[in-house]
Amino acid sequence: MTCETTAAEEQRYAELQLEALDCARRGDRNALLAEMLRAGMPVNLADHKGNTLLMLAAYHGNADTVALLLDHCADPDRPNARAQTPLGGVAFKGYTEIASRLLDAGAEIDSDQGAGMTPLMYAQMFGRTDTARLLQSRGAGRGWGIWRITAPLSGALVNLLRKILA
Q1: Number of domains observed in the structure of the chain
Q2: N or C: which end of the chain has fewer CB within 10 A?
Q3: Which is nearest to 80 in space by CA: 64, 99, 59?
Q4: Does any domain span residue 19?
C-alpha cells in the first residue's frame, strides 16, 4: 500500500512551513509554533538560505522562542548556507541572554563562522562587550593569537564610528 499526497496537501504543508519560519522570526506566536512542533513539524526546519527555526529566533532576539526550540531539541550548532551558527548570529547582534542559553544547550563556543571567524570575534569586532565577556568566561578564544589584539580594536572602531554617525 502506498500513501500519496495530493498537490493541495503538499501546498498546505509548504504554507505551514513558511508559517513556522515566520513564527520563529517574529517570536510572537510561540503557542502556535509549539503546536506545530507537537504535530510533527521538524524542529530543525530551515528556509532557502539554510536558516533554521532556531537561527531565525536567535538572530531576531526572541529568547522565549529560542527556549521553546531548544526544549524540543533544536540543533544549536546547525549552520546556515553561509556557515553561520545561531551562536555566531547572537554574538554579532549582542544578545547575551540568548548566547548563554545556546551555550547551556551545548553550542560549540569557538565554531568557525566562515573565514575563520568565531562568535567571540564577532562580539568583539562589533562592540558587543557583554556578549564577549560571557563567551570569554565560558572559555572562548583561548589560543587564537593576534585576534586577541585586533578584534577588540575593531570593536572599538565600530563603536567610535557609531558615535560619530549618530
Answers
A1: 1
A2: N
A3: 59
A4: yes
